[in-house]
Write a structure and sequence with these properties.
This protein is α/β, with parallel strands linked by helices and about 325 residues long. About 20% of the residues lie in helices and about 25% in strands. The strands form 4 sheets. Strands 3, 4, 5, 8, 9, 16 and 17 form a 7-stranded mixed β-sheet that branches. A 6-stranded parallel β-sheet has the order 12-11-10-13-14-15, sandwiched between helices.
């Protein structure tokens, strides 16, 4: 296909202001990069944190978006992993140096010089994007473009958080039943776990959604579940949920904080942490996480619930996410 000179993109000029629809020059791929014609891009809570200024160091004139599904239309001189016409996905982790202390330890998600799609690299709220071939994934044929998009971050971060919850988990709590939780709930239930879903107080729609996916219990995040949890994952960026989750876990239980941002955690009595309970955070993702998730998702099969918006309504999608009006995941169809 002939590649035009210009593309439409939603650009962040300044934090806490709406994205601006602009016409800009289509980027050219470097030696290790592919140029992608974007078909869909998920709208993630991390995008919201960037736009709202919670994550304060985006690149200037940023194009957000890091759940990209598209087709390769041009390849750099050193690209061997993909060919033109391949359908691929681009996640949050966009580059690592492979040389730092963390990369050498197999912890590329903690790389000192990592670059992130839609934050320090232009992302997918646009018609085209370039991405490093080494950090892209082939997409299972089972999924349409809009169905696949949420897997690239909501799914991936959720899956890494799920892994970090540890072995032997039977009763798993999910605080904040949005894009990540609705994906991981399906995988956990497929693997024989019992899911307890915690929503905003009074969010009956969200609780019914959790029940429809197979949760054994769903209720307000201010309440204790009927049974103690082996582990809990906190997807909502709400600091007070940490002591609440600790209170709900068994001895030796693990509470995983899945978000890249969370409001301040209030002080809490030591007895909530005592008895060998563990609190841990999750940062970014590894390519192994992506390969494992995209292998298991079609087996379950994971079905993503999406609300679709056109590119020019990216601000509306973000605002609906901000207000808790998205059931499942928001996706821009481009």
């Amino acid at each position: 296909m002939k590649i035009p000179e210009k593309m439409r993109a939603m650009v962040l000029e300044k934090a806490r202001q709406p994205l601006q629809l602009m016409e800009i020059t289509i980027p050219e791929p470097g030696p290790e990069q592919v140029l992608i014609r974007i078909h869909a891009c998920g709208v993630c809570r991390t995008d919201l944190h960037i736009v709202d200024g919670d994550l304060s160091k985006p690149k200037p004139h940023l194009i957000p978006g890091h759940e990209i599904i598209g087709t390769v239309v041009q390849t750099g001189s050193h690209v061997e992993k993909f060919n033109v016409k391949d359908r691929i996905g681009v996640p949050w982790l966009g580059y690592t140096d492979g040389k730092c202390y963390y990369c050498k330890r197999g912890q590329e998600n903690l790389c000192e010089n990592a670059l992130f799609t839609g934050y320090t690299i232009d992302g997918g709220f646009a018609e085209y994007a370039v991405a490093d071939q080494r950090y892209c994934f082939p997409i299972p044929e089972k999924y349409s473009d809009v169905e696949a998009a949420p897997l690239l971050c909501a799914g991936l971060i959720g899956y890494r958080s799920y892994r970090m919850a540890g072995e032997g988990v039977e009763d798993l709590g999910l605080y904040g039943f949005g894009a990540s939780a609705h994906v991981i709930a399906q995988i956990a239930i497929y693997q024989g776990k019992r899911i307890y879903a915690f929503t905003r107080p009074g969010d009956v729609t969200g609780q019914e959604f959790a029940y429809s996916l197979g949760a054994v219990w769903a209720g307000d995040s201010t309440k204790l579940p009927p049974d103690k949890l082996d582990a809990a994952i906190i997807f909502a960026p709400v600091g007070p949920l940490l002591p609440a989750a600790l209170k709900a876990t068994k001895k030796g239980g693990t509470v995983v904080c899945a978000g890249i941002y969370m409001s301040d955690i209030p002080s809490f009595p030591y007895h909530l942490l005592w008895e060998e309970r563990v609190v841990r955070s999750v940062a970014n993702l590894t390519r192994q996480d992506g390969e494992e998730l995209l292998a298991i998702a079609p087996e379950v099969p994971v079905k993503t619930k999406v609300q679709v918006f056109p590119l020019e309504q990216a601000n509306k999608a973000l605002d609906n996410l901000r207000k808790g009006k998205i059931k499942g995941a928001a996706v821009l169809k481009i």
